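Hi R.,

Here's the chain you asked about this morning:
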Amino acid sequence: TGSFVTRSWRGLLWVAFVLIPVAFVLLSVVTVFGLTGARRPVQTADIATLLLTVAMGWLIWRMFLRPVVWLLEDRIALATELWVAWGEDPAQLELAKDEHGRRRLQLVRYAAVCPVCAGTIELRYSGGINRRRLVGCCSEVPHEHQYTFDRILRIGHRLPQHHD
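And the predicted structure, written out as C-alpha cells:
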C-alpha cells in the first residue's frame, strides 16, 4: 500500500535500519577517542583512520540520520537515494496519521504542473534561513517559479521573487 504503521514489525525494521548508522557513529567516536589516548607517536595509519572515520561519519549523517531527524521533526522529508532509485522521480518520506490515529511512514510523490510555464513542479529544500522548508520548484525555471507547499491541504502559492 506504500505505507506501514511505525509500531508494526516493518516499523521496527525501519528503526533497526536507523540504529545501525547510529551505532557506527558511536563506534567512530570511540575510535577517535581511542586514537587520542595512544601512548606512541602519531602514524600515517592513525591519520588515515581518523580521516576515513570522519568522512564515513559525515556520509552516514548526511545519507541516513539527518533525513530521519528531519522526518521526525517536520513530518515530511525528501527521500534520499536509499529510498528511491536514481532513474525515478523525486519522492518524499512522510509521517502521517491514519484514521485510527496511528503514525504511518509513507513514500509519496508530490508533483504538479507549473501554472506559469507548464513545467513540472517538484519539492526541494529552500535555501538560506529557511533551508529546511520544502518549496515547490519548477523544473524549467527553478529559481524563478517557486511555490509554498502545505502537505495537509496540498496547495501552494507563488513565492515573491527577491532580485538584488
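The first strand starts at residue 3 and ends at 5.

Let me know if you need anything else.
M.
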